Amino acid sequence: MRGNTMPDAEKSNPGKRTALVTGASRGLGAAIATELAAKGMQVAVNYFQSRAAAEDLCQRIRASGGSAEAFGADVRDEEEVATLVAATRAHFGEIDCLVLNATGPQPMLPIEQQTWQIYLDQLEFFVKSPLLLVQQVLPQMKKRGFGRIIQIGSEVVELGNPNFANYVAAKGAQLGQTRSWARELAPFGITVNLVAPGWIPTERHVDSSQQEMDQYIAGVPMRRMGTAEDVGRMVAYLASDEANFLTGQKFAVNGGNTLL
């Protein structure tokens, strides 16, 4: 684990719920962490390489009156996941909400150039990592009879984007995983849902052309791109008590782009 810079003297507020957001140093993860903190949750901001960005995000959250701390870990690694969860508990207490957002490179290749390893690379992020994290937090969630598990999926499962089968297949597996977990964990008071964004411009898309974005927007009923904040608000709702009868669902945040 890549460690955090938590001062030993700082302690969490035991009256607040705690959320762990993976891949939260930038993009959707940062917006999700910000929104959860604005709703009063203590937020563990997980990062892989971008420690400075994660620390900066935590400073902004704290400046706005929220509570956040950065924790580095590769969430595909079993030992680092265990250390991440232990460090979060030591600082904030038990984890009430787990947001599975971490992702990696997403190569677009024709079928002839795709390899099984490229598929496995995507499954590491969208199936293996969620499994490792859920296994770590589940015993305490079951014991307390409460938990929120929120996966960040994608509209590509419905759209079937060409030259992207490696990513689409992994996101499809993630959705199936969500639904199975939801049925298994519902009797314990644990909800499991998936938020499926459309194309949300973030730092990942700095090289995208205006023409590409215009072509995408042309197919969106609301005729605009969404924002990372749109996704953050959906996640915050699912993390709240107001969503306590919602589980096993996919919530598309894409301006109606997957209306069929």
TrEMBL record:
Pfam families per UniProt: adh_short_C2 (PF13561)
Species of the source: Acidisarcina polymorpha
Record domain Ketoreductase: where: 17-202
InterPro entries to which the protein is assigned, alphabetical: KR_dom, NAD(P)-bd_dom_sf, SDR, SDR_fam
GO MF term (any one): oxidoreductase activity
Record key words, sorted: Oxidoreductase
Family: Belongs to the short-chain dehydrogenases/reductases (SDR) family.
Protein name from the UniProt record: 3-oxoacyl-[acyl-carrier protein] reductase
